[in-house]
Design brief:
single chain; alpha/beta; Rossmann fold; 7-stranded parallel β-sheet; 9 helices; 47% helix
Amino acid sequence: MHNFFDFTGKVVLVTGASSGIGRATAELFGQCGASVAITYNNNSAGAEAAVAAIEASDAKAIAIKADVTENAAIGQMIGEVENGLGPVDILINNAGSLIERLKTLEMTEQRWNEVLNLNATSAFFAAQAVIPKMLEKGSGVIINVTSIAGRNGGAPGSIHYSSAKAAMLTMTKGLAKEFAQQGIRINAVSPGVIDTPYHETFTTSETMDNLRKAIPMGREGKSSEVASVIAFLASDAASYLCGETIEINGGLLMD
């Protein structure tokens, strides 16, 4: 039986992988044999712990500090991955944050641009940076990590974040259409309420209790549950999926 989840020989780049979904994804790819590059901005301890976990799986891993809101930093990041591990076969655009909750009348141009750049713009230019080498090989996978907020507008004070995540949904479709015939598969995952540092930072315990009550499965998801869907999309088991966004939310939002 073919093992779809054997990524031996593949180079995987996961942005924002020092905690939460990104870290779980990076470690899972390492367990599946891939060489993994993880990026982080501030959490060096988490990044190094992820590298150690991947290396414990007998896989190669490197951590790269990068501010993905800067296009020059993205190019440098890709160069470091290529020098350390080789050309990127699989890109996981996971870096992102709400930064802070702000209602419409509180929003500043600076904060709006910062959140859009961190979540959506960085994903586009990271894709742009890896696509040339993927075109040379005639294959590649890009997976964007968006959010249920991009579909339902998000909770109060998150319009900048939900708008950025909605942009990622559309970006996924546009990139997929452009490069599908050239061997590059581009899809997205859209997590709902997942037990990550995001909610520890931005969501009160009372709000979390109310969210759990609204989820048909009665609980928040785990980072590992999102990571497994990302690995599926990166595998040949998803060879005919193109421009899709898979909702992972325990039934909170159903298509």
